[in-house]
Structures are given as C-alpha cells and as structure tokens.
Amino acid sequence: MTSIERAVPWVVVVPVKVATEGKSRLAGVLDERVRAALVRAMALDTVDAALAASHVRRVLVVTADPALSGSSFGVVPEPARTSRPPLDAAVLAGVAAARAAAPGVAVAALLGDLPALQPADLDAALALAATVPRGFVADAEGTGTTLLTALGAVDPVPHFGTGSAAAHAAAGHVRLDVPLASSVRRDVDLPADLEALEATRVGRRTAALLARLLG
Ligand SMILES: Nc1nc2c(ncn2[C@@H]2O[C@H](COP(=O)(O)OP(=O)(O)OP(=O)(O)O)[C@@H](O)[C@H]2O)c(=O)[nH]1
Ligand SMILES: C=C(OP(=O)(O)O)C(=O)O
C-alpha cells in the first residue's frame, strides 16, 4: 500500500482549562490577567498548528472558557467533576464527542499548552501512532504526557500529569519515538519553559503576547 492509503485521519482533542484558573505554576512570574491571556494564546496557537497538520481531520477543544470559540474547531463543554482527575475526564468527554460524531475514528488527545507546536512534528507523531493501537508522547522531561493516541478499534486511556508516561508504558501503550526536540514535547508549565520560548518559533498569538511582555 502507498503511504497515502495508510494515512489515518485523526480527530484531535485539546483540553483547555478556564484561562483564569490556568498555569498556576507561572503565578510567580505572571499576574492573573497575563496568565489567562497566555493560556488562551497558547491554546489557540496549539489548535492552529494541529489544524495545519495534514493527518488531522478535525479539532475539538474541551473547555468551559467562554473566550475559546471559533469556526475552525468544535467546542465540547467541560464535563461535571467526578472522582477522575479533571484533565483526564475532559479528554474522555472530547473523545466521546469525537466518537459520537464519527464512530471508530482515530483520536489523539493533545495538551493545549504547546505554543511552539509545528504541524510537521504533529504529523510525524501521528504517522507513528497510525501503526499502534495506543501511543503516547512524553513531555521533554519524560514524565508527563503531551499526546496520547488511540486507533478507532480501541478506547483511549486518558492519563496525563507527572508519572503518566511511565503509566502508559506500563499499560503497554507504545512510546512514540519522536525526537526530544519535537515541538509535540514542548509544553509550557514552569518559568524556565516560558523563558525558553523567547528563542523558540511559537504561534502568532503567543509571539505577540511575549513581545508585549518583553517590551
Ligand atoms: N478542559 C480542561 N483542560 C485542562 C484541565 N486541566 C488541565 N487542562 C489543560 O491541559 C493542559 C495541560 O495541563 P497543565 O499543564 O496541568 O495546565 P494547568 O493546569 O493550567 O497548569 P498548572 O495550574 O500550573 O498545573 C493545559 O492546556 C490545560 O489548560 C481541566 O481540568 N479541564
Ligand atoms: C499535564 C501534564 O503535566 P503537567 O501538569 O506537568 O503539564 C502532562 O505533561 O501530562
């Protein structure tokens, strides 16, 4: 088969916290207003990069943030709190919406704080993910998970946060062999991640915000 026939069309689910509650680990360097603007800028830049990836058919954003709406992606309401970690529950809600609209569709849950995401890097990860039932990409630290994938015949097992990469590996999910430098692994959590963005090609909204911050 040619690579075209093998190409899997993906629905990408992007969870985004209400902006005013996001990025608390940056509270020491950014005030609440700027942090909220950063959450929104990074989320929309992540979505734009995902939409530009050739393997992505649709993007669904799972959020309760009223400022995150747009014509190029769908919005899935934040699910009610349960005993499950809220991020994992949000991803499950997004996956359920994707599968309700397109039964058996391959789904990829992508964190919404990847402002340096490049479409080619996401395509490279999804090309690898097309060969395994469940895959994941660890963050640059190797502990968290920034992308998890599930082909149409299996349900994803949403698990994010510190330690989630090891949990996915222990569950037999395949660590997708993307380079450490891949922009799929570059989430922004800590002040050091924010500083590193100054030397990184980021989406236009995040770039504009950083330019205002740095004067
Ligand atoms: N919809 C939704 N998205 C979430 C939730 N928790 C985290 N996210 C998103 O998932 C991505 C990664 O989460 P984190 O790195 O923990 O982001 P965060 O919770 O804003 O960061 P901290 O407050 O510093 O822990 C970010 O895009 C968040 O906006 C949640 O409960 N619901
Ligand atoms: C959500 C994650 O962790 P963090 O809170 O460190 O971004 C993750 O990377 O799985």
Describe the structure.
The protein is of the alpha/beta class and 215 residues long. It has a single domain (3-214), classed as Spore Coat Polysaccharide Biosynthesis Protein SpsA, Chain A (Alpha-Beta Complex). The protein has seven helices and seven strands, in the order H-E-H-E-E-H-E-H-E-E-H-E-H-H. Strands 3-2-1-4-6-5-7 form a seven-stranded mixed sheet, sandwiched between helices. Strand 1, helix 2 (32-51) and strand 2 (56-63) form a beta-alpha-beta unit. The radius of gyration is 16 Å and the shape is globular. The chain binds guanosine-5'-triphosphate and phosphoenolpyruvate. Phosphoenolpyruvate binds at residues 111, 139, 144-146, 160-162, 164, 187, 189. The site of guanosine-5'-triphosphate has 18 residues, from strand 2 and helix 3.
